[in-house]
Design a protein that fits this description.
Elements lengths: L18 H21 L4 E6 L3 H16 L3 E2 L7 E6 L4 H20 L4 E6 L5 H10 L5 E3 L7 H9 L5 E3 L20 E5 L1 E2 L10 H5 L3 E2 L2 H13 L4 E5 L16 H9 L6 E5 L8 H9 L6 E3 L7 H6 L6 H14 L4 E8 L6 H14 L3 E6 L17 H22 L7 E9 L6 E6 L4 E5 L8 E10 L2 E6 L4
Parallel strand pairs: 1-2, 1-3, 3-4, 4-5, 5-6, 7-10, 10-11, 12-13, 13-14, 17-19
Antiparallel strand pairs: 8-9, 15-16, 15-18, 16-17, 18-19
The chain binds S-adenosyl-L-homocysteine (SAH), iron/sulfur cluster (SF4) and FE3-S4 cluster.
Length: 481
């Protein structure tokens, strides 16, 4: 056992969630208190997050529980409890974790009571867990994406055991509500509206590690946002791997557009964002709702992945180049000031120079405000991993460089379109470089540096966009009279 003595339990362990977790939080609290008495100082924790917004939100849940049981947050990984919330969408995401684990073992040698935990998407892969069991014996706790709500219970299990605790589920249909959350920002928050993914794009591992699509009930989402707003939140980001298919599996099905209309009604909420939209499911109803809305931000992330209809079919994306371009046209006709961003993969198996030029052609035609470009990464277990004609590295690198150069050039040309105008900016943080500035975002997600101090953080203020410097604006708050 990692502790000198076990605390005796009082009462029955609740069977229902989240009550069961609150029971374990109480128990964990007692352990943490005892340990910090022994050490004569508070115990510290550090959560390191890899991957997407979904993981970032999950990490806020981890932090919420760790704080609830008495740990104090620190930036340093030289802490009493370190947890990595991992991503496995591309191979290099995995490598980063192994690299950093080696570095953590150094801290643990000096602080043998240190607990090291791993969770997130990478842990849903059997080969990863095998490797950890073999070569990373100093890891204390491993769990996956489906049972993250059990974190408090797992911490207790870990403290009461003397070997590696591993709890990975293959899938779940459970959604546990109302656990503590510690938000990174006081004024904005991610809100999960669904979990998992059913799309099985042939290159993508997410459906295997996040399980089948499950939507939260609209009442639960609205209640959470109302609570957030009461707590000072003005902007929410609705999160899902494919928000456009929200609500299909609910007892009373509801479209994403309808959900947005409900969220719009929440008084005090100022801005609504969402991620990610799959082009195949983006409805006219959604475009109409966005167009009418006062709160939905003028930004849409619409992953393209490839501009070649042949490759898109191989990718199992269910749209072709023409349909994608028509969708973009429809969006821009309805909402002319909408900013469009995208994800593009270079070097999918079988991609020829002609296919790649089709991607370049879409980039020329759409002129994205910004684009994330990725080199195809082979994920074992996905259909694309065993497809013939994997593209040689040097060819991929050459295409990637050409794409990136063009994407950046277009972004630079597009930035600055609003120079001279007065636009609302949500001020988010102090400027890292210049103390006289704070930094915020426009509705279209562009970054703006504004003269001012911390008192502006969390506020939406009208800003005169005086100048555009590359990828951001410089501006001044306009005093309304
Ligand atoms: N659900 C979102 C994407 C989640 S993953 C969507 O469908 O748009 C984020 C991005 O990672 C994807 O859009 C894709 O561009 C990229 N990606 C996913 N799997 C990849 C792989 N095997 N290699 C390279 N990039 C990949
Ligand atoms: Fe992956 Fe496709 Fe699902 Fe996005 S929609 S998470 S790319 S399988
Ligand atoms: Fe990565 Fe999992 Fe997100 S694999 S991209 S953290 S859903």
């Amino acid at each position: 056992m990692r502790l000198k003595e076990k605390i005796s339990r009082t009462g029955d362990i609740p069977v229902m969630e989240p009550q069961r977790q609150f029971y374990f939080m109480e128990l964990a609290k007692q352990y943490v208190e005892k340990l910090s008495e022994e050490k004569g100082r508070p115990l510290t924790f550090c959560v390191n997050t890899f991957g997407c917004q979904m993981n970032a939100r999950d990490s806020e849940k981890l932090c919420g529980i760790l704080e609830n049981i008495g740990y104090v947050e620190t930036d340093s990984e030289n802490a009493d409890f370190v947890i990595y919330n991992t991503c496995t969408v591309r191979e290099n995401a995995n490598n980063k974790v192994y690299g950093r684990l080696g570095y953590l073992s150094g801290f643990k040698k000096r602080n043998p009571d240190m607990l090291i935990a791993l969770c997130g998407c990478m842990m849903q892969e059997e080969t990863v867990v095998e490797k950890l069991k073999q070569s990373y014996r100093y890891v204390d706790l491993i769990f996956g994406t489906h049972n993250i709500y059990k974190f408090a219970e797992l911490i207790v299990q870990c403290l009461e055991s003397d070997s590696m605790v591993i709890d990975i589920w293959k899938d779940t249909d459970q959604i546990v509500e109302d656990l503590p959350v510690d938000r990174k920002y006081s004024f904005k928050s991610g809100v999960n509206i669904m979990f998992g993914c059913n799309n099985f794009c042939s290159y993508c591992i997410v459906p295997y590690v996040r399980g089948r699509e499950r939507s939260r009930k609209p009442q639960d989402i609205i209640r959470e946002i109302e609570k957030l707003v009461a707590d000072g939140v003005v902007e929410v980001m609705l999160l899902g791997q494919n928000v456009n298919s929200y609500g299909k599996n609910l007892e009373e099905p509801m479209s994403f557009a309808k959900l947005l209309q409900e969220v719009e009604k929440i008084e005090g909420l100022e801005r609504i964002r969402f991620m990610t939209s799959h082009p195949k499911d983006l409805s006219d109803e959604l475009i109409e709702v966005m167009k009418q809305s006062k709160k939905i931000c003028r930004h849409l992330h619409l992953p393209l992945q490839s501009g070649s209809s042949r490759i898109l079919q191989q990718m199992n994306r269910h749209y072709d180049k023409e349909q994608y371009l028509a969708l973009v046209q429809k969006l821009r006709a309805a909402i002319p000031d909408i900013a469009l961003t995208t994800d593009i993969i270079v070097g999918f198996p079988g991609e020829t120079e002609e296919d790649f030029l089709e991607t370049m052609d879409v980039v020329e035609k759409v002129r994205y405000d910004s684009a994330f470009t990725f080199i195809y990464s082979k994920r074992t277990g996905t259909p694309a991993a065993t497809m013939p004609d994997q593209v040689p590295e040097d060819i991929i690198k050459d295409r990637f460089d050409r794409l990136l150069a063009r994407v950046q050039q277009i972004s630079a040309e597009k930035a600055g379109a609003l120079t001279g105008q007065i636009c609302d900016v949500l001020i988010e943080e102090k400027n890292g470089q210049d103390e006289s500035l704070v930094t915020g975002r426009l509705s279209n997600n562009s970054v703006v540096h504004v003269k001012g101090d911390e008192s502006l953080i969390g506020k939406i203020v009208p800003v005169h966009l005086q100048e555009c410097k590359g990828f951001y604006y410089l501006g001044e708050v306009v005093n309304e009279s």
